[in-house]
Amino acid sequence: MKTIVMTGGTNGIGLAAAEEIRRAPGVRLLVGARSKAPSKLKTLPFDLARLASVRSFAAAVEQWLDDTSIDGLVLNAGMQVRDINQRTEDGFEPTFAVNHLAHYLLLRLLSPKLAPGAVVVITTSNLHDPKTRADRQAPARPAPPPFA
To answer: What is the pTM of this model?
Structure first.
């Protein structure tokens, strides 16, 4: 039996991928999610905007695994916040925290549970590519303070 752990599997292309993975014979899938998945996916609570939640999720995954290993880790969740003044409870800009820091921490925490030859898939977008601008506007920056 192959064991897959995934983030971002509750909507969009992530949900479609999770459904395909779940239907594969001999595979068990666990999805970390802020909310219940709209399907028969096994989910555990997980909020990528909170590093404490990343640590709790990793601990819950280890419990769920028992003595088995992770054969595939799919780090798919992502979001965009346009307000550069918004911060997570850890003090980070939310887009960077969710799309990068949280997945990095999760990978580090779960690395000891990866099976030999395990596959790690990290999906990304062109959201941060300054060449494409990804059909988005730059966040509004506050005006600099006047010089005295």
So the answer is: 0.82
